[in-house]
Amino acid sequence: QTPAHVLLDHLEVMNKAYADELCAQWSEAQLMHLIDQYKQRASTLVDLYNDIKAFAHDPKTVDTALIAQWRTDTTKALVNNFAECMAVASPLNHETLLALATRVCDEHGTKLVHLAQPLRLALTGGITSPGVFDLIAILGKERSGHRIQELVKAL
Questions:
Q1: d(CA 95, CA 114)
Q2: Nearest to 52 by CA among 39, 43, 63
Q3: Helix-, strand-, coil-residue percentages of the chain, each rounded to 5
Q4: DSSP per residue over 38-85, as a string?
Q5: Residue 2 pLDDT more than 90?
Q6: What percent of the chain has a predicted confidence (pLDDT) above 90?
Q7: Phi first, then psi: what are they for 67, rounded to 5°?
Q8: Ramachandran region of residue 110, left (φ > 0), alpha (ψ -120 to 50) or beta?
Q9: Whose C-alpha in 5, 74, 96, 139 is 20 to 30 A from the C-alpha of 89?
């Protein structure tokens, strides 16, 4: 075989290994949505793989210092109120979650960013990610709710 064929064979084996690992963590529909969400942020396929793989696991820590500029006296109540409403929201999609978040923020007299950034931290362990409402819809109520409650405990 030529060096190019050897390289292509090697890439095919690597791609299958990456795909198999991600398929073990996500349903096909979830994986397609995650690829769609993370592809805009990834510089390489390895970045895309690493981001999606990391998102499969609950954040190891919730460093609330990362959201200091968005944190207020009502952050804990705001996030908790959103989580309670999310638990009964239907359907669980971007539009429903955005409307819910807007309503909760209006009730608390705060801007959406003061809810979105803490939610992003709860979901991903960081403050940069695809849209939080899309991520919640992909993770589902139970997994998202668990991650959000871990943040509430840390606040």
A1: 18
A2: 39
A3: 75, 0, 25
A4: HTTT-SSHHHHHHHHHHHTS--S---GGGGGGG--TTHHHHHHHHHHH
A5: no
A6: 59
A7: -110, 20
A8: beta
A9: 74
Q: Which two tokens stand for residue 59?
A: 């954040």
Q: Please give the mean pLDDT across all residues of the chain.
A: 88
With tokens 């990391």, the residue in question is 54
Residue corresponding to tokens 């895309």: 48
Q: Which of 18, 73, 21 is nearest to 44 (CA)?
A: 18
C-alpha gyration radius of the chain: 18
Report how far residue 45's alpha carbon sits from residue 49's, in angstroms, rounded to the nearest whole number.
Answer: 6
Give the pLDDT of residue 12.
65
